[in-house]
Design goal:
- The protein is α+β, with helices and mostly antiparallel strands.
- The protein contains 3 helices and 4 strands, in the order αβαβαββ.
- Helices cover 39% and strands 21% of the residues.
- β1, α2 and β2 form a beta-alpha-beta unit.
- The chain is globular, with a radius of gyration of 12 Å.
- The two termini are 13 Å apart.
- One of its GO terms (molecular function) is RNA binding.
- This is Ribosome assembly RNA-binding protein YhbY.
- Keywords: RNA-binding.
- It comes from Radiobacillus deserti.
Length: 96
């Protein structure tokens, strides 16, 4: 689990990032979870956008992605989910 201080740090780091995945009306599927997991391994910190036509609630989407990838949800703001997962090979973010 991330502490409040670590979440604040990650939110600041993610501020300038653009969402690289979009969850639409089909919701979250296994293929998307695999792609998000690969992206997290490369970048550690990513944003996922939940589109207006998504039938699931953004909290449900965040939980599904988090459980599928083992990532931490650093923030849900509007329709954007910020995810963090420590990389095994490409570690660049030093948490406070």
């Amino acid at each position: 689990m991330l502490t409040g201080k670590q979440k604040r740090f990650l939110r600041a780091e993610a501020h300038h990032l653009n969402p690289i995945f979009q969850v639409g009306k089909d919701g979250v599927n296994d293929n998307m979870i695999k792609q998000i997991d690969d992206a997290l391994e490369k970048r550690e910190l990513i944003k996922v956008s939940v589109l207006q036509n998504c039938l699931e609630d953004k909290e449900v989407v965040a939980e599904a992605i988090s459980e599928g990838t083992g990532a931490e949800v650093a923030q849900i703001i509007g329709n954007i989910i910020v995810l963090y997962k420590e990389s095994k090979e490409n570690k660049t973010i030093q948490l406070p």
